[in-house]
Specification:
Elements: H1 12-17, E1 23-28, E2 33-41, E3 47-56, E4 59-69, E5 74-79
Antiparallel strand pairs: 1-2, 1-5, 2-3, 3-4
Length: 80
């Protein structure tokens, strides 16, 4: 007898798509953090952020404008 659970599981790229044109917080390997508006991404989770800023201790340390972040450096992405 098989029991099927009714679970709504979205794929990671679907969740990322819902964050387009919204502010996100990105943490990279090595501890660096960035915040900006997610403009685009690809299947490798490479991201383009607009109005990006680098954060130190949760506070803006420098404004960067448009940045490209390579997906293989990302630890996590959070709505932000």
């Amino acid at each position: 007898m098989s029991v099927q659970k009714n679970v709504n599981v979205s794929r990671p790229l679907d969740a990322l798509g819902k964050s387009l044109n919204s502010q996100v917080l990105i943490k990279l390997k090595g501890g660096r953090e960035f915040r900006g508006v997610l403009k685009s991404f690809d299947m490798h989770m490479n991201l383009v952020l607009n109005d990006a800023e680098e954060l130190e201790n949760g506070e803006s340390s420098r404004r960067l404008g448009i940045v490209l972040i390579r997906g293989d450096n990302i630890v996590y992405i959070s709505p932000g």
